Structure formats: structure tokens, C-alpha cells
Amino acid sequence: MKKWFKAGFALFMVAVLIIPLAACGQDKVQTVKVAEVTRSIFYAPQYVALEKGFFEEEGLKVELTTTWGGDKTMTAVLSNAADIGLVGSETSIYVYAQGSNDPVINFAQLTQTDGTFLVSREKINDFSWDQLKGATYLGQRTGGMPQMVGEFVLKKHGIDPKEDLEMIQNIDYANIPNAFASGTGDFVQLFEPQASMFELEGIGHIVASFGTESGHVPYTTFMAKQSYMKKNPETIEKFTRAIHKAQKWVESHSAKETAEVIQPFFKDTDLSLIETVVDRYKSQGSYATDPILDEEEWKNLQDIMDEAGELPEEVSHDTLVNTEVAEDIMK
């Protein structure tokens, strides 16, 4: 009886000690609401961080929402519907120029090039940019990074977007691929996987990469309101560390391995197509290998915006970019 009592008491004490510890551990898990501008293979490292449990390792529970638009993403952040936004850095400049007393700060870069490709209706073996002169070109939304980068690249190759070709911009973003597939336009600027899908289906042919042509820019970054970052410095640090783990994982693993990990986020896309897209983005250096948004990239962004006539005012790097968090977690 005494032995039974001692054994039972010991088990009771173990339970008494373990349950509070487990509850304590649960209390340390913090929920972070993230709004992504769109669902895209372009953001592969983010999905790797989610699927590989890198956020959980940092004690974070990430609730991801797709907002389908830069303006909607920024609205979610500004209204506190989201803690962190994944969107183009140009949006933080637009908000700042409107006189915000709580600016949105870029703290971790995810992609470092444009993610669009030039697709031709006809197969062109020896493509040159001057072949666009006189052609009909399906562009992107005015003021958005894809269109600004597109115009920047065209001008770089001596093409005036307003004079040398017929630029069509009155089609909603979601309907641009359908418009091209139905016969509108000689060339179109498309994201993946649509560009590769058109190649597979014989609808179009990828002839150039805007990401390669435009150089490094902070195309999509994680950002949060300055007030949120000041109130939650440890959360921002943990979040950035998880993203950096994912960046290193993608860099050190094959496109096939990455595709297999992120496939749950693209259930309607064939695995081989995901692999093709990951390989294309990885080979041209679109995935940032670290979260630091440096001054040269920031300058390139504003040069592109200025060239497009969309830069409301020049903003210094240290005003809207925080690299200290990224630098600290990389030490």
C-alpha cells in the first residue's frame, strides 16, 4: 500500500509540475497576423517557413491572409487587421508621402528582383527589345511595381512606352492572361506560373525577364507600422529569424525539394510546374538570400518610381527601412 501510495504521489507531482509548464509554454506562443499581397510561388521562402515549422520554432503562430492587392494589404496593416504586410516597398513610400504619423517600416526583404516576364505571342529565336516597337503590349496597373519596372526596362532599351508601342492598361490584373489568351496583344508582361503555363500550352513564349533586366530592387518586403515594431521588438526579431532560416533553406535545397514543400499552398498547380517556376526565380536571383534591404536597392527602387513619374517624394533609406533587426539575427 505504501509503495502504491508513493508511486501514485510521484505521478501526481509530475503532473502538477508538467501541466503548469505546458500552459506556460502555450502562453509564450504569440499569434502574428500576416497579409500577403497575393498568393505566388514568387514568395516561396515564406511558405517554406510555414511548412517547415520555422515560425513555431520561434514561438510564433502565423495567421496568413491573402489580400489580393497592394492597396488592400496596406489598408490591412494601417487598420490593424494585420500586424505585418508582405507587399512592394513602394507602398510604404506612398503612405509616408500622405503624411502618416505612424509610418510603415520595411524590416525584412523577401524578393529582390521583379517577378514578371515578357511573353511573346509568336516564338522568337533571336529576341531583341526593338522588336516591341509598333507592337501591341498588354501592361500592368499604373503605379504598381510591375508596370513601373516594365517601363523602366523599356526605356533602358530605347523604347518610349507612350510613343513606340500601343500600351493597353485598361484590363484588370486578374483578366490580363485571359485577354492575351483570347488574342489581345502581341506581347504581355506576366508573373509566374502563368508565363510558364502559356509556354506549355503554346499560347505564348517567354522571351525576356524583367527581373534580370531591372537589377536588384526591394520588390516584396515584410513591413509593419512603426508603433507595432516598437511595441513588439521580440516578435519582429523572431519573425525575421524564421524568414532567414527559410531563405537559407531555399538557397541550399533544390528547386524540386522547395516545390514539394510549398505545394500545399498551390494545390491546383502541377508539381513539375511549381518546380520549373522555383528554378527560374532561383536561377535569376529573385529570392533574397538574407532579409537585409540595403541602400543601393532602395535607391534603385526610387529611381524606377521616379522614371515612371510615380515617386511622390524622395525618402531616405533610414526613414522607412530598418536593417538592424536583420543584421542582428545574422550575427
UniProtKB/TrEMBL annotation:
Domain SsuA/THI5-like per the UniProt entry, residue ranges: 44-252
First and last residue of the signal peptide: 1-25
Top-level taxon of origin: Bacteria
Localization: Periplasm
Keywords: Signal
This protein's GO CC annotations: periplasmic space
Coiled-coil segments on the chain, per record: none
Primary location: periplasm
Pfam families from the UniProt entry: NMT1 (PF09084)
SUPFAM superfamilies: Periplasmic binding protein-like II (SSF53850)
Family assignment from sequence similarity: Belongs to the bacterial solute-binding protein SsuA/TauA family.
Annotated PANTHER family: ALIPHATIC SULFONATES-BINDING PROTEIN-RELATED, TAURINE-BINDING PERIPLASMIC PROTEIN
Protein name, per record: ABC transporter substrate-binding protein
Organism per entry: Mesobacillus selenatarsenatis (strain DSM 18680 / JCM 14380 / FERM P-15431 / SF-1)
Source organism phylogeny: Bacteria, Bacillati, Bacillota, Bacilli, Bacillales
